[in-house]
Design brief:
single chain; mainly alpha; Farnesyl Diphosphate Synthase; 17 helices; Polyprenyl_synt; all-trans-octaprenyl-diphosphate synthase activity; Isoprenoid_synthase_dom_sf; metal ion binding
């Protein structure tokens, strides 16, 4: 990961000072670096130790960072990772344009691999992520959203880059198709579990733990699995209250919504869904050669269920 950080620092260089300032601001704010870590772990599990793994790990981090910059503008977010978002600090125009810079820089860096398969995977992933963002936008303030539509959005918007990161590790290692597919399934399952737990924490955590404002999902009208489960399991009055809160984005009802989500067992429903995805990821990882790096992939999937931020 230190090697990846070195690539990130070098490739953020620009003759335009504001580009570097905004990019460094969001990248230096921390984050779990899960997507680059997945790529590196898969490479090591499959025996690939070439330098290109560091370049592509930085690429997926740049793509992820670009999506964060754009997301925070769309969502009008003010807090991420415990500090002001880039759009709050530098303004919306700078955040959007630097997000564009990071996307284009990522595509420049992809060329270093001299591999059309790598280009295909990453181009497909960025396109699917964009579609997922649009789907989520269309679903805002719609209390009739069901679990299938919710899963479709998070598999596009969040899990797709996890899937691409793991698949890239297999491609770099020259793995056979069955192993490549197992890696892709692992990434998709881990990414899905990660997002479901993230949505659980919006109703179970604290602002200090999460590093973001509680209730942001409700304010934005996002219908996540905890809300879907609460409406399915709650009384008519409880269901009506959640529907009203989703449609209006009124945080005045946040405390009551949280109470309903917790009282109906909706958090447990969502946690069980995440656990099923984690189990699917562990089964996929079992198809890789038995070594410490494959075992780390198994442990990573299991650890998602204990997330607090």
């Amino acid at each position: 990961m230190r090697e990846v950080d070195g690539v990130v620092a070098r490739r953020l260089a620009s003759t335009v000072p504001l580009v570097g300032q905004v990019s460094r601001y969001i990248i230096s704010s921390g984050g779990k670096r899960l997507r680059p870590a997945l790529l590196l772990l898969v490479c090591r599990a499959l025996g690939f130790r070439g330098e290109q793994r560091f370049n592509l790990a930085a690429v997926v981090e740049f793509i992820h960072t670009a999506t964060l910059l754009h997301d925070d503008v769309v969502d009008e977010s003010t807090l991420r990772r415990g500090r002001a978002t880039a759009n709050e600090h530098f303004g919306n125009p700078a955040s959007v344009l630097v997000g564009d810079f990071l996307y284009s820089r990522a595509f420049q860096m992809m060329l270093d691999a001299h591999d059309m398969r790598v280009m295909e995977i990453l181009a497909d992933a960025t396109n699917v992520i964009a579609e997922g963002e649009v789907m989520q936008l269309m679903n805002m303030h719609d209390p009739n959203l069901d679990e299938a539509a919710y899963v479709q959005v998070i598999r596009s918007k969040t899990a797709k880059l996890f899937e691409a990161s793991a698949r890239l590790g297999a491609v770099l290692a020259g793995a056979p198709p069955a192993v490549e597919q197992a890696c892709a399934e692992y990434g998709q399952a881990v990414g899905t579990a990660f997002q479901v737990i993230d949505d659980v924490l919006d109703y179970a955590g604290t602002a200090e733990e999460l590093g973001k404002n509680l209730g942001d999902d409700l304010r934005e009208g996002k219908v996540t699995l905890p809300l879907i489960a609460a409406m399915r399991r709650g009384s008519d009055d409880q269901r009506a209250l959640i529907r009203r809160a989703v449609e209006t984005g009124d945080l005045a009802e946040l405390e009551h919504v949280v109470e309903i989500v917790r009282a109906t067992g909706a958090l447990e429903v969502a946690h069980d869904a995440a656990a099923a995805e984690a189990k699917r990821a562990m089964s996929a990882a079992a198809q890789l050669p038995a070594n410490e790096h494959a075992q780390a992939l198994v442990q990573l999937a299991a650890s998602l269920l204990a997330r607090r931020n």
